[in-house]
Each structure stands twice: as C-alpha cells, then as structure tokens.
Amino acid sequence: MLREATPEVEALELELLLEALLQRYGYDFRGHERAALRRKLRAVMRQRGLRTLSQLQDRVLHEPGAASSALRALHVPPATLFDDIDEARQLRQLVGASLRGAALPRIWLADCAGAEQAWTLAIILADEGLLEQTEIHATVASDELLAEAQDATITQEQLANYQAGYARSGGQGELSRYFAASGKRLAPTVALRSHITWAQYNLVTDASFNEFNLIVCRRALPDFGPVLRQRVLNLFHGSLAPFGILGLDRAIDAADALAPHYAAMPQPGWCRRIA
Length: 275
Known about the structure:
Blueprint: H1 7-25, H2 34-48, H3 53-62, H4 64-74, H5 85-99, E1 106-109, H6 115-127, E2 135-140, H7 143-150, H8 156-168, E3 179-182, E4 185-188, H9 190-193, E5 196-200, E6 212-216, H10 226-239, E7 240-247, E8 262-264, E9 270-273
Parallel strand pairs: 1-2, 1-6, 2-5, 6-7
Antiparallel strand pairs: 3-4, 7-9, 8-9
InterPro entries: Bact_Chemotaxis_MeTrfase, CheR_C, CheR_MeTrfase, CheR_N, SAM-dependent_MTases_sf
Domain CheR-type methyltransferase: 2-248
Pfam family, one: CheR
C-alpha cells in the first residue's frame, strides 16, 4: 500500500514541483508562502485522485490539462461581481479622493481576480461619475487567464443574483443597465468595457509600466512570502503617483523602509502616498 509522504519528503517534492513549473512553463511561485501553496495543490491532488506532489509533478510535466489545473489553482481565484462588499464600499469612498483632480486618472488592478473584479470597479466608477475620464489597467499572470477575462460573459440568472451585492455595496438602481446581450448571455456595455485595458503581467519579474493614481492588489498579496512581498511593494511604490492610494491586504509594517512614505487611511489596508 502506498503511504503518504512525510513532511520532509513533501517539502522536497514541493520545491521540485515549483522548479518544474518555472522551467517548463515559466511561472515562478518560489516566493510564495509554502502553507498557501500546499493548501492549493492538495486540492488539485484530491480532484485528480493523487496521493503525492511527485505524482502531481509527473502529470504537470506530461499532461497539459494537469498543468493548467495546477497553475489555475496557484493563481488568484476568480472573483464574482460585487463578491467583496466591504472592498466595494471602500472603493466608493476612495475613488473620488484618488482620482478627482488628475488630468488622466489611471487605476491598476494588479493580479486581477478576473473579469468580474474589473467590472465591479468600472461600475463603481460609473456610479460615481468618474468612469469617462479614467483608465483601468487590469493585469493577470497568464495568457489563459487573459483570454478568459477578455471573453467573459455572464447569464441573466447570475446578474439577478448579483443585484443584492450591488445594492449592499451602495449601488443605486438596476445593475442590468451596465450589461447588454451577447448571444444568449450578457456582457458589459461598450461604454464600460472600453475603459478596461487587459494585459498579461508578471509581478515576480516585470518592471513598472506606467504611473497610477490608484493601485489595488488585495487578493494576491496574502500568498506572497516576505521577500516577494517586499519586491512587489517596491514595484507599486515606483508606480504610484504622488498622493496616490494603494490598496493592500494589510497595512504596511511600521518598520518597513516604505512606511514613512505612506499615511494610513480609515479603511483597513488602504494608504496614501505622501512622499
């Protein structure tokens, strides 16, 4: 009978699997928290009836479907429209402070959790009268996620279910006014979609590509280890305009070298650049 791997062996298996993902597919998860990686990969193993990470590594190297499943599990889980009511409320309070007065306001959704997270932000901006002059740059980690985001649609039933979250977040009226028929499904109106620019972008390796008035990365950061987290914070700092707002999963540590450059805001995890 096969036995479960010991913690020591599993730790070695995990490092080998991460190296395989990097060498074979170009995705570097070596800077992520190991506990988060194990949790996500064990879920893939259960789905595929595998007992060890070595078995998963074999599938990942030789079966495109297994590789896609593993990479999807390790990337940011997809959001649904207005699924985080607290964040949506906070954004309603903050977008005016970060965007009004800018000649061409730009927002970066870094490691965006899919199309519906970007749609949520665009709808909030439209509600607040700020969408027309604002550019949303939504970046995802893989070409597969990029294609899915660009082609995303929802059903009429999903839209009806999202109405309650929209209202709870402070939205007024019918959410349906922001959607139009796309075959038998629904897609955001052209007026909404035209303000969202999608791109593949790797937070681990890529450099700053623009200056932004608002940067949001609250869903990916919890899985980053301390070295990668610091690398990403420095990247955001170099990409944030003076007095721009940064949305993180938690406040910047007081001992961090970047801390003097930011002032905490009343909303948890949000801060404004002051220097």
